[in-house]
Amino acid sequence: MTSIDTITLEVADVAAAERFYAAAFGLGHRLNLRAAQEPTTGFRGFTLSLIVSQPADVDVLIGAALDAGATTLKPAAKSMWGYGGVVQAPDGTIWKIATPAKKDTGPATRRIDDIVLLLGVADVAASKRFYRDRGFTVAKSFGRMYVEFAAGSGSVKLGLYRRRALAKDAGVDPEGTGSHRIAVGGAAEPFTDPDGFAWEPASMASLS
């Protein structure tokens, strides 16, 4: 197991979430939904990022998400690294839509180049060892602050960020308790990482 095949979000209303994600992002098989009533409050400890090629694409996807019922956490804006913004879906999931480009090179599209799951962890170095021991290859590493793994054959990239730093990047308070409300598909056998994120075989996600 060296990659993420699918992400499964646990939501209170599957039909409503299906309508939202179809209208907002159109991620197809890469995103699954299933019903869950596990209690959760505050920050769930992760964000999902959609990486696109230019600012116009960021604006199109954020606009579609807002029209479908999302709320703004950080308005789209330029920064040192590019252009992006953060929204929260009606089910509570935090989505960052961003591009490293600062200028448009063509008409806006809805094409998504990469999906990145960022886990907010208590100890980046310890979690890095945990995932490396399970076959993940480190692509980028910035000490105890941030780690990005190679995507392998999967359709979703995995990154680790300090929990408080990830919450700040998302524009939310870092405090939160209860279920993460997410399951990661791609494990050979089910396991739970040091921060409580559940992994399962991709075949289980496809049955959701």
Write up this protein:
- By secondary structure, this protein is α/β, with parallel strands linked by helices.
- The protein has one domain (6-206): 2,3-Dihydroxybiphenyl 1,2-Dioxygenase, domain 1.
- It is built from five helices and 15 strands.
- The protein has helices spanning 14-24, 55-68, 124-133, 163-170, 202-206, and strands spanning 6-11, 31-35, 40-42, 46-51, 71-78, 83-88, 94-99, 114-121, 138-142, 146-149, 157-162, 176-178, 182-185, 191-192, 198-200.
- Strands 5-6-7-4-8-11-10-9 form an eight-stranded mixed β-sheet. A five-stranded mixed β-sheet has the order 2-1-13-15-14.
- Helix 1 packs antiparallel against helix 2.
- The longest helix has 14 residues, at 55-68.
- This is Glyoxalase.
Short description:
The chain is α/β, with parallel strands linked by helices. The chain is 23% helix and 36% strand. It has a single domain (6-206), classed as 2,3-Dihydroxybiphenyl 1,2-Dioxygenase, domain 1 (Roll), CATH 3.10.180.
Describe this protein with a few key phrases.
208 residues; alpha/beta; 2,3-Dihydroxybiphenyl 1,2-Dioxygenase, domain 1; 5 helices; 15 strands
